[in-house]
Amino acid sequence: MPEESCAKKAKTSEAFTSRLGFGCWQLASTGAEGDYWGLEYTQEMANANIAQAVASGITFIDTAGDYSKGASEKQLGVALKALDPELRSKVVLGTKIVPNLCGNPEAALKESLERLQVDAVDLYQVHWPIDKNAMAHFANGHASFGASTEVDQSSVPSMEGCFRALAALQAAGKVKRVGVCNFGVEQLKEAQAYGCVISSNQICYNLIFRAAEFGIIDYCKEHGIRLIGYSPLMQGILHGRYEKPEEVPMYRARTRHFAASRHSCSRHGEDGHEELTFKTLAELKKVADKAGFALQDLALAYPLAKGFDTVIAGFTKSAYIESNLAAASLQLSDELVKELDATTEELKTAMGPNADLWQGVVDGKQTGRVM
Q: What is 7-48 written as a DSSP string?
């Protein structure tokens, strides 16, 4: 691996993302049978929620070219155009490129810019590490939520080509910053080696999924890479509304917490940790009750208390914007954070250092995002 830029630190100590971010995976959902979120997210909802969020200080808005097959970007683009110019000037806009398109980032970015109706984006992120497992998933356009199409190794774009192209797009002013998502330490090192400053790493982190603590958080902090956490509520599971695995909606039960045999959409091939997960959830509810917090508020504040710079949440209702803002402003005591750590330590150990929620082992080799 070239060493020309491996030690280069990102100049991103400044807070270019707000403490709470607006996640746009739900935008443009149709509510049709098989829809992941099970709701219709209309343009009127997008316009109203984004305007309220930005006015309230949620200025980082995060979408992806893959969400709703590009429709999320389109809906967001219309909502941004509808914003008051003063509010629009505060927005930090992030989108993503799937690994399958990393052979030609310029073409993928051009399509995203057209859908978003902008000339440049503030943060352009590689949606997933560039390997055949991630590509197999995205080859289905998320339609099957897990079932993979076989991808030949020869079709995997080179990391060097991708990140050199991203650096060129940044130099041309089409991208203000380059980020990654779900990258482990070794993948971060390789991305840094090709002359591209990595400004952020967006990774799943929450009370029942702490794999980022196995080296990723420390590396990002050491190298000035901003930490953006997604799924702080584990797609609703940390609301405390589910008491047993059978109650969790199918598409949300495909992570490594659950047995792969539970649903055909799972692709990790593991036995899961269902009993321990729900035992931990019950114990977390007791901790939250004792501390006088709703579990979901404690869960949203936790990544920020553990060193994440930004936590992303999706919003479908005005009330959720206000309640999540309040949760993000909570200052958890050191004692409470230690109690939460202790309560979830057994599950953290059982889940291990694989920071990929959905991919397990293939042919005896761990292929998830690890240290």
A: TPPPS--S--S-SEEEE-TTTT-B--TT-SS-SB--HHHHHH
Locate 49 and state its tokens. Answer: 């929620």
CA angle 119, 121, 122 (to 5 degrees): 135
The torsion defined by the Cα of 329, 332, 334 and 339, in degrees rounded to 10, comes to: -150
Domains and CATH numbers, the chain: 20-242+295-334 (3.20.20.100)
- The CA distance from 126 to 132, in Å, is 14
Q: What is the pLDDT of residue 368?
A: 44
pLDDT value of residue 149 = 60
pLDDT value of residue 140: 62
DSSP 276-309: HHHHHHHHHHHHHHHHT--HHHHHHHHHHHTT-S
34-49 per-position pLDDT tens digit: 666 678 899 999 999 9
Identify the segments of the chain with pLDDT beneath 70.
Answer: 1-14, 32-37, 140-150, 264, 361-371
To the question of pTM greater than 0.85 for the whole model, the response is yes
pLDDT for residue 197: 95
**165, 175 contact by CB (below 8 A):** no
CA distance 207 to 205: 7
Give me the sign of the Cα torsion angle 116, 78, 182, 221. positive
Give CA 250 to chain center in angstroms.
20
Long-range contacts of 185-188 (CB under 8 A, 24+ apart): 185/215, 185/216, 185/219, 185/371, 186/370, 186/371, 187/129, 187/369, 188/216, 188/219, 188/220, 188/223, 188/225
In whole angstroms, what is the distance from residue 293 CA to residue 285 CA? Answer: 9
